[in-house]
Amino acid sequence: MTRLTPADLEAARDRLVPDVVASGLSVLFCGINPGLMTAATGHHFARPGNRFWPVLHRSGFTPRQLRPAEQEELLSYGLGITNVVARATARADELSAEEFREGGRLLEEKVARLRPAWLAVVGVTAYRSAFGEPKARIGPQERTIGGARVWALPNPSGLNAHWTAATMAEEFARLRLAASASAPSSP
């Protein structure tokens, strides 16, 4: 990968990054919003310190650890990626409460259209903000969004020191097991 300069990253501010989606996914992972590295590369969870890709593999969702540039391969596993807020920022705290609420509204429409079995929001704080659920905790949620069951996952950012890769992988694996158990069986 070409080394990006600070100017390259700043030029990616406010860019939109295409979702990796298809209809009828088993799990649609939903990030908070794209970071500048993601926007500059066009690959979700692209910052080297982000633990999404290692945790996804470690939890059993993928047979090997994918690189961000291989994100389209997720579709073959019934997985996809979107974001609560589409525009790229350096930090999530640059987003307004209104952006989160509007992002939640748009996400609900997207989920209703794509019909994944599960919506997995990576970042319980983003879930709380987007859907007005201030007491939500990590794990399965009572509500559905756009017809999908919802699971709040820990944020895989390297800045989230409360969760290790191992404890995150355990929580992601809980979702994987629930998604497997609720998947329709093949004839």
From TrEMBL:
Domain of life of the source: Bacteria
Q: Which UniProt keywords apply?
A: Glycosidase, Hydrolase
EC class of this enzyme? hydrolase
UniProt keyword Hydrolase, yes or no: yes
- Known EC number: 3.2.2.28
What name has this protein been given in UniProt? G/U mismatch-specific DNA glycosylase
